[in-house]
Amino acid sequence: MIFSTTRRGDYGLTAILYLASRKQDELVQIHEIAEHCRLPEPFLAQILRLLVRGGLVQSKKGVGGGFSLARSAKEISFLEVLEALE
To answer: Could you tell me if 17 and 81 are in contact, meaning their C-beta atoms sit under 8 angstroms apart?
Structure first.
């Protein structure tokens, strides 16, 4: 199967892969993801909101907050990520 993704899909997959490289319960702040992956932070914020709504990412607000995968990376498919974003 061949996938064709939008910029949103590309950035979303990049963010998921970055979060997957971290400990599952480790919270990562958005500016760290944006800086490490070289993604525009305002657009990344929109993408992360969609991934949270899709149940793939969880977020914690406030001091010490951030983002992490909602479940094990092994349980998340690329197709799921793209469907949550498109």
So the answer is: no
* Among the listed residues 20, 8, 4, the one whose alpha carbon sits nearest the alpha carbon of residue 49: 8
Contacts for 2 with CB less than 8 Å, ≥ 6 apart: none
Q: Is the dihedral of CA 21, 75, 71, 35 positive or negative?
A: positive
Mean pLDDT of the chain: 92
> Among 20, 36, 29, 84, which Cα is nearest to 60's?
29
Global confidence as pTM: 0.90
Strands (E), 1-86: 57-60, 66-69
DSSP 3-state percent helix, strand, coil across the chain (nearest 5): 55, 10, 35
